[in-house]
Amino acid sequence: MKRRTIILGGGALLAGAGTAFIALGRGGEPISRHSFDWKASDFRAGGTAAVPADLPEPIFRAEPQCVVTSAKTLGPCHTSDVPVRKDVTEGVAGLPTRISLRLVEAENCDPIQGADVEIWHTNADGVYSGRAASMCNRDDADARSTRFLRGRQISDENGVVSFLTVYPGWYSGRAVHVHLRIIVEDRELLVSQLLFDDALSDLVYEGHPDYAGRPQRNTMNGGDSVFSASEAAQFILDFERLDPGVLQASYTIGLVRS
């Protein structure tokens, strides 16, 4: 059985098919801190066009993410009429990334089926699509007329949704992030955001050809304007490099439905 290494927001997890474990310290923190041995050249470029359809199933850790996920601002770059689709790229370039989210009841970790999950984030240049606030895509008429990097999925019997996208770009004042909105039985249960590991963002922005030519970003996770430095680590996605050169990003979201 092939073992897969998942980089946590704080440690490395080794998993076989369907099983996973992590060594924790006495306070519940991962014992080993992660480091990325990957290079930017280990990943595909140009977007998702050549990504194979049979990617391996995502692996989620059971602990400690099976807790209530905190709400965050919707932000000025949200739009309406977002389509249900798995590949949200509309052909934009970038490091192909699959974002997989597992929705569970915070009380008992039971999966939530049938939830409407929406994500949105920027392209490699740090620009949002759609007719949103002017700050989201100022002076970019092409971006305003499209819906790239926006999409919705309905959670399956395991509470899982997966979006095929690209690694987000950065913009001033914000750490690298993806927005999400979750509706269950016509009730909005959560609007929040998830973060990307700073070391991984450095690797991508400094070496991947689709992100070349931009200035150095000015905001890390510890200095974000939405997340405090003390809470940012709780919102960092887990990562894995899949064999086709695709980045897998995963997170378990705890929800309260009462």
Automatic annotation (TrEMBL):
Superkingdom of origin: Bacteria
Stretches assigned to the Intradiol ring-cleavage dioxygenases domain: 99-196
The record's section on InterPro entries has: Intradiol_dOase_C, Intradiol_dOase_core
The record, for Pfam families, names: Dioxygenase_C
One annotated GO molecular function: ferric iron binding
UniProt keyword terms in alphabetical order: Dioxygenase, Oxidoreductase
* Protein name stated in the entry: Protocatechuate 3,4-dioxygenase
